[in-house]
Amino acid sequence: MGTPYRHQASVKGAGTDCLGLVRGVWREVLSAEPETPPAYTADWAETGGAEDMADAARRHMKEIACLEAREGDVVLFRMRANGPAKHAVILTAPDRMVHAWSGRAVVETGLGRWWRARIAYAFSFPALQD
Fold first, then answer.
1. Structural contact between residues 13 and 21, judged by C-beta atoms closer than 8 angstroms
2. What span, in angstroms and rounded, lies between the C-alpha atoms of 23 and 40?
């Protein structure tokens, strides 16, 4: 909590973006990351339309039904209608999430209606699967 937003970073206390937050938790809870993402621009998802973030998550995590997501699970959001999923959070409770948001620090916020309407995918970390 409180780590400043830094595009493409994933270092606790120094800076992170939303993907970097998930990567940092992976390193802390599991071990070394299974792959390193390629360099990406802030508008990376708008340029190709592919589900790159979801595809990468599928390679290393267990996809679950969005309605089954619970604390500790990663949820991906579409930030615009029909756009690819490009924002990642980690649930901390049924109605709470931790995420890194551009221009802010890592924070825990509510998972309200606005966010719920944009949920596209959910995944469990391998070590957290039942």
1. no
2. 15
* β-sheet bridge partners, residue 93: 96
Q: Tokens in use for 64?
A: 């679950």
Task: Give alpha helix (H) positions in 8-107.
Answer: 18-29, 44-48, 52-60
Choose among 18, 34, 38: nearest CA to 26: 34
- CATH annotation of 10-128: 3.90.1720.10
DSSP 3-state of 59: helix
The model's pTM is 0.91
* Inter-residue long-range contacts of 24-30, CB under 8 Å, 24+ positions, other chains counted: 25/90, 25/125, 26/125, 29/125, 29/127, 29/128, 30/125, 30/126, 30/127
Q: What pLDDT, on a 0 to 100 scale, did the predictor assign at position 65? A: 98
pLDDT tens, position by position, 26-42? 999 999 998 888 887 76
Q: Phi first, then psi: what are they for 62, rounded to 5°?
A: -95, 120
Identity (one letter) of the amino acid at 62? K
What's the CA gap between 38 and 108, in Å, rounded? 27
Q: What percent of the chain has pLDDT over 70?
A: 92
